[in-house]
Structure formats: structure tokens, C-alpha cells
Design goal:
This is Small ribosomal subunit protein uS9. The chain is α+β, with helices and mostly antiparallel strands. It is built from five helices and five strands, in the order H-E-E-E-E-H-H-E-H-H. A hairpin with a 2-residue loop joins strand 3 and strand 4. Helix 3 runs parallel beside helix 4.
Length: 161
Amino acid sequence: MAQTITSLADLKQGPGAEPAGLSAEPQEPKLDKEGRAYATGKRKDAVARVWIKPGSGKIIVNGRDLGVYFARPVLRMMINQPFSIVARVDQYDVMCTVSGGGLSGQAGALRHGISKALTYYEPALRPALKAAGLLTRDPRVVERKKYGRAKARRSFQFSKR
């Protein structure tokens, strides 16, 4: 029983009017038994496992305070970016373990993980974080070294004679 559609209004009224995945009901938070949201963030070679829960804004990285682990203010600002974008500064405690890569990659992985964990804890924050580009994994990684070259793109020094 195929229904003929003559206008866009008929298309809206059809049986499949609402696209899949776009339901009007709010999403439910993904929490563990202890009431924490868990997410994994990645950047370059670094991987961050992040747990967030409501608290006073304390961030623990590998058992150390944020200011001790990330001494550079730029990295600390980068890590706190998801909270400032959604106006949740000092409302969540973060406990995370970071491994691999350098400090900059680890800070990027931590920012990615915090953003994902925030969306799991409060799904309503997803559009703001997505618009800021914090939920997208940065695909840039180190280019591999090629044979016949000194590095990925640099050639060996040329000697005319």
C-alpha cells in the first residue's frame, strides 16, 4: 500500500515523519555505580581516562593536582575550557589517568575526555560542546618517516661533488 506524496506537507505527515535518533525525550545520563561519568579522550599518542562527579572543581591527574602535573598556564586553561564553555566551572571534580605522548598531547586528551564525560553526565550540554569543537577527536598525528629520507619529509643533505 504505497502512499503517493504530492507535496512537502504530505511528506511531513507521513509515517516516518520523525528521523531516527532525533527523539523529543531527553537523553538519560550514563553514570556508574558511584554516580560518576566515565569517558576516554585521545590526542596524538596520549590517552586520558576521565571520571567526573559533582564537587568543588578539584582536578586530579595521575594522583597529582592539576597545577603540579601541568605547570604551564596554557595547558591548564586548555583543560578547563570545557567547563568554561558550558558555565560549569568549579562544579565537577575530575579524576583522571593520562598516559602516552607529551604534556601538550596529554592536555588535549584530557580536554577531549572531560568534554565527553560532561556530555555523558549532562546530555543537554552536548550541543554547546559540539559547537565549540571539543567533542571531535583531533586526527592530526605525527607523520611517519619514509625510507630514503632523513625524516618524514626532509631529504638528506645534497652534495654536488
